[in-house]
Amino acid sequence: MKNLKGLYLSEAAIKELPSSIGHLQALENLDLSGCEDLESLVSICNLSSLQTLNVNNCQKLEGILMLDLGGDLCSLRSLHVTCHVLKSGVIWSNGHFSSLKTLNPQCGQREEEILDHISPLSSLVELSVRNSSLMEREILSDSFRLSLLQVLSLRNLHPLKWGILSYISHQSSLVELSLSKCNLMEVGIPHDIRNLSSLLSLSLSNCNLMEGEILNHIWQLSSLEKLSLDRNHFSSLPAGISQLSNLKGLKLSHCKNLLQIPELPSSVQFLDAHWSDGISSRPSVPPIRSLINCFKSELIPV
Predict the structure, then answer these.
(1) Could you tell me if 265 and 287 are in contact, meaning their C-beta atoms sit under 8 angstroms apart?
(2) Please, what sign has the CA dihedral across residues 152, 167, 109, 131?
(3) Across the strands, what pairs with 256?
(4) Percent of the chain with pLDDT over 90
(5) Structural contact between residues 116 and 138, judged by C-beta atoms closer than 8 angstroms
(6) In sequence order, what are the residues at sequence separation of 6 or more whose Cβ sits closer than 8 angstroms to the Cβ of residue 20?
(7) What's 50's DSSP letter?
(8) Do 279 and 259 form a contact (C-beta atoms < 8 A)?
(9) Which one of 68, 170, 199, 211 has the fewest beta carbons within 10 angstroms of its own beta carbon?
(10) Could you read off the pLDDT of 225-244 as tens digits, one per residue?
(11) Last-in-domain residue among 55, 89, 110
(12) From the record, what ranges are coiled-coil (predicted)?
């Protein structure tokens, strides 16, 4: 099957891939996630068209030895990997993955030492970091030269340090930002978040948000189209939400203390406020003009 572009072997009981996989010169996507017995990836060294590699939760895989594999994987654009596989920095050696655009490292608390070996990833467009202390080692510092970063997802980071938020607020290239399950009440949202002039999507789901200025700065993001504030603790939203003239989707589900919603921008097409108990007991809100606009519009995914 020399024209095969996608091969999905998630959770397969294999120790290694057959050498014949090297004949799949058109292969672009290889998913080996959850292959707990997988011990080697040497056979993928000739997959010159490979763009996406997923080796998350491959517990017996000691390392992707790029020094042995040579430079044939230089077309790789997306890497999903458990941090223990990023062995002693060999994965980054000799400029390998200089074209990597998406990095999704799944790391434990004791695996942040891999950052000592990571070279600048100047082409990185998308970065996702969850459940780890990687961010405490300033992966977003200028030394990593993430000037092209467009999509950033940080999840379940406690605490989320002020320095990280300050750095994020100066990433003018960001289009999507998610800080789900990051406690923002301890650090607040920096006022210079308005620098994110290109931001189209923002998720602050389950961030322990309350009333006050912590929410006020969001309304300065004039380009914002999608906003997720679900599972937070505020009882109202600032009236400034009406200034988001490009807003199309708003998620307020499971905001159990929410009592009212101010007038929404006429651009809103999607509103999700289910399981927000206070709202359900107040039939007069949100304003009827906002709801009429939602009913007339085509629903969009958020």
Answers:
(1) no
(2) negative
(3) none
(4) 21
(5) no
(6) none
(7) -
(8) yes
(9) 68
(10) 999 999 999 888 888 888 89
(11) 110
(12) none
